[in-house]
Amino acid sequence: MSKLELKPLLDEVGAAPMVGTEPKTLANWRVLGKGPKFIRVGRKAMYHPDDLIDWLAARRVSSTSERVAA
After folding, report:
1. Which of 20, 54, 62, 65 is the most buried (most CB within 10 A)?
2. Is 19 among the domain residues?
3. Is residue 70 part of a domain?
4. Number of other residues whose CB lies within 10 A of the CB of residue 53
5. Does residue 63 fall inside a structural domain?
6. Residue 64's pLDDT band (cuts 50, 70, 90)
7. Of 58, 56, 43, residue with least CA distance to 17
8. For the chain, what is the domain count?
C-alpha cells in the first residue's frame, strides 16, 4: 500500500465542489461503488485531495463521443 502525502482530508461537503457535484451525489456514488476513492474514518467518508484530482484526470476526454470508464 502506498503512503498518502499528509494533507488534510476532506469530508463530502468539502470534496463535492472539487468534483463539481453535491455531497448527496458523493454519498450515492459510494453506495454504487462509483466516484472517487474515499477513506472511512469511523462512520465518516473522507477524501484525500490527490484521489479527487486523480479521479478527475481519469475522466478527461477530448470528444463528446468518448466514453469514460466508470
Report:
1. 54
2. yes
3. no
4. 13
5. no
6. confident
7. 56
8. 1
